[in-house]
Fold each of these.
Amino acid sequence: MGRSGGTRKPLIFWAAGVVAYMIAVFHRQSLGVTGIDASARFGVGATGLSVLAMVQLLVYAAMQIPVGVLVDRLGSKRMLLAGASVMALGQLVFALATNLPGAAAGRILIGCGDAMTFISVIRIVSVWFPPRRNPVIVQVTGLLGQLGAVASAVPLITSLHANGWTPTFLAAAALGVVSLIVVGAALRDRPPETETAAPAMRAAWAEPGTRLGMWTHAATQSSAAAFTILWGYPFLVQGEGLTPRTAGLLLTTITVLSMFCGPLLGFLAGRFPLRRSWMVLTVIGSTAGAWTLVLLWPAPVPLWLLVLLMVTLATNGPGSMIGFDYARTFNPAERIGVATGIVNGGGFVASMSVIALIGVSMDLQGDYRWAFAVQYPVWILGAVQVLRYRTRARRLPRLRPATSNA
């Protein structure tokens, strides 16, 4: 399976990366289900909560290309160890914070460490597994990573209400030790020969397939990310009158269902590479359609329709993973890190923008329905750009014939 000729070592290396990624997702999502408690602890409103999520995602997005370059040059192991350490420090700061600046400092550190993690795991897949298996393995990586989101929903809410703020987030910080032990003991890495940073970035950005992946990630990820990272829990509890437990279960539903969607989309992307962009457009259209039903339905929205929305949002994460398949398909191995960083950064810039616009809208008029309508321009722009760069990408000869079409 791996380029070394064996099967066991690549699987061990990949598994170590996945453990680190699961813990990173837990850290990333930990603000979303604590939004109401965070608002009370730090004395902030909707815009203040948006600031916390936005600075985390802003740092995450800004770090993508620098981290991509470093991953290509230093390898995955060093970057995963650095990321785990920085995220653990961030949760420690967040646990002890009592005001908005302190909380923001914690979320900045979490965003920084988180940025080092996923790209490093994607590089493990690209280096150690053959191209034809990459789409499925990347989807399974995302699937397993979502177990961290499961742990950040109901269990974190339960701990927060039972043990309080500081003990809960101190325990979250301790998870960083698990990442350090697993990655340090199980992962071995070898940095490839690479281009210098500037030419690699220019070449990756000039490739239409990279930008196709970036817009794919932006248009498919942003809705579910905004919902799970910050605004879903307040919307369900305050906007729709659900109990905290029911809201937590609905958020968990997104994660669980995405774990089934991921391998299916990965298989389809590998089996029908010419249809990848149609899969992306289907995810965008179905997400916009489900939200339209929810936003137009007279209050309160029935539970079955909210469940339908969760089902649709569950396709967003797996759909966004197709963007990384484009990065791999259209770029050589020596710049896979920086290409992946461009794709990932675009998705999180879009997510950060949606989160911020929802917060501003809530403070201006206080209606969740109008606030969530800010997503429509992102979907429209994303769909147009996917179609645009699909056309450009198809005109060029490909690097990886096995998955050569957009």
Amino acid sequence: MEARTALRQGPVPLAVRMRPTSLDDVAGQAHLLRPGSPLRRLASPDGTSGAVSVILWGPPGTGKTTLAQAVAGSSGRRFVELSAVTAGVRDVRSVMEKAREQADLYGVSTVLFLDEIHRFSKAQQDALLPGVENGWVTLIAATTENPSFSVIAPLLSRSLLLTLQPLTEEDLGLLVDRALEDPRGLAGRFRLAPEARAALVRLASGDARRALTALEASSTLAEDDGAGEEAPEITEELVATAVDRALLRYDRDGDEHYDVISAFIKSVRGSDVDAAVHYLARMIEAGEDPRFIARRIIVLASEDIGMADPQALPLAIAAADAVQFIGMPEGRIPLAEAVVYLALAPKSNASYLAIDAALADVRAGRIGRVPMHLRDAHYPGAKRLGHGKGYRYAHDGEHGVVEQQYPPDELVGRDYYLPTGNGFERDTAARVERLRTRVRGTAPDAS
């Protein structure tokens, strides 16, 4: 045991040495650890009857393996661990047979932890079903990919899906502080500069394993750099050297956050594709939430490109969906594709200006009554009130357009959408003018 706790002694990484042995020591995931929750019932030695198989879905480093092993350590049940990377159908069936024997002969329940279940084929996942369905094992499966696409439906229906969230900066700070002082970790042998602590938390991007790995590497450099000192200091510079990357001055709640996202938006709007990709890279490298970046890209597609290229918005939404589906770091690729497309696309804010102008009129009280011929005429008594009288069905007109008043009287002739001459709007502008003159009757013969 002493060999595992001494600094840099043996091959066991700091992240493994610091893994909690009970759910009470787990940092983060409070929404999954409330009293009476499925994980709490699994961890209770007398909670076998309430135990249910679970699938833990979340990004790397959020504690899936930690939760499974903490459950095992707390429950006292027989615990078996398999990895989908190395296990096959024969291994699964062997575990199931052994679990059935233990349950039948000794009344011992088995918890099976299956890591990376998304790597299992359909046949391998099918082999799990008898054990889960008959209660021979309580399955705890972990995956970084959406189980709706990577886990077979029969197994999903027999398990409870629990979603893990990226660790907060407070959670990561707690883990770093604990590892610095805990006898299993660095045992108080180092001092950690506040700037270095902030850098470790920032670079971890919600991943506990990454934070502890960087701390361990930094401590190695600090020990060499401060040879002979009683408590060598881990500095921000040592952290940067250990992880081999520049420490970006980027506080997600500070000025740099707003400056970089502002420069990113303006670069896309200004059609500077290289600057746009640069600022995207800065946000990704600093650990910005990719969902935040994706949301900004969607807004850009509508606000600054709009009808100049109607494909910009579907592409931006597809990139956001792709990031949600595949996660990071691969998610950087669809984000970059969307950013390049948007930066190179023709620009128009006409749709954005149109809705804001319409909203301004509505808020100023320029609304008026809906014309009688456009009002709902389907309910009893509506026609007696004159609703729908004189309405002209557009499809009966040439080109599907008829002369007719659509806005309230107060807004007749008010133009909100003013298309530019850019991209797709070059054709749209001419069509808008033809439609307005035909609908309004200012040039009845226009087509």
